[in-house]
Amino acid sequence: MRVLVTGGCGFIGSHFVKRLVSGGDEVVVLDKLTYSGRKENLDSVDCNLAVGDIADPEAVAQAAVGCKAIVNFAAETHVDRSILGATDFGRTEFFGTQVLLEEVRRTGARFVQVSTDEVYGDLERGGSAKETDPANPSSPYSVAKAAGDLHVPAYVRTFGVNASITRGSNTYGPRQYPEKLVPLFVTNALDGQPLPVYGDGRQVRDWLHVDDHCAGVEFVLREGRPGEIYNIAGGNERENIEITHRIVELTGVSPSLVRYVTDRPGHDRRYSLDSSKLRSLGWEPTRDFEEGLADTVDWYRSNRSWWEPIKSGEYLDYYRRQYAERLA
Ligand code: DAU
Question: Structure pTM?
Fold first, then answer.
């Protein structure tokens, strides 16, 4: 099948493209190549790359020619950046998703919207979010994702498009941009720099290996039903401070690099996803968390040529704005 993967130069998107190509699908990637969309993520992958914006209907129509499906990974994804300024988030997540749905309305292609557990909001009081739970987003990022998702059932109901939503938990693995917890802390540790833990570090996230996340999205692409949401969870709930200590051990640095800093405003205390729906259909995660994290640390240790050039220019400006005062 010929598939359009939007955001295919990003972290999860590029793993997904590799997965489809190695399974024999023909892939076209549409990517705006923002700071986190890296061409080199698709080095030696046999696919076509169109550089463009999902919020541009012409770019989408051109890239989608002949495609039987569109899988949307394109998004501004970093919560801290959305707190610094959210305009790009609304444009890509809300308007961009609508443009893609207009395209599938026109062509009849299958559509998968790749979303996040963050739309369910904080589950501090316990329990796990089910697909039937209402959205209750806390950050400008998760509001933008929830708003984009809202188009999907509306287009299914009004126009009969063949579209589903996936909602994944915190994803880790090779080639993740070093602004997120795991790659930031691993690369900082490898450079002997501080690991800035927000607040008391007792916030809980559920960790999912990128390979398992991509397998879940592919499962939904092939087997998912129109209008349905599918949660994809790793089943590895951990406090941030546990992850931090594990990274300290795996990189062999001094625990004195761990620094408790001012919390993220509006910080969600706990995410937890119930993924029994997708599991009952046949998907399940296969990667052991301890092993997956150790492999990820090894990947960053062996691939400095991937992340060192990133940690310059725009990245340093962002890093200063986000951390200079916190670490002063
Ligand atoms: O849950 C899925 C979501 O996971 C995705 O939708 C988002 O795109 C992705 O960014 C991620 O959101 P989080 O905010 O949970 O990820 P992040 O890696 O930024 O932070 C993970 C936890 O670590 C969170 O509780 C905040 C904390 N943290 C993060 C950073 C960057 C720190 O304590 N210090 C830091 O410097």
Answer: 0.98
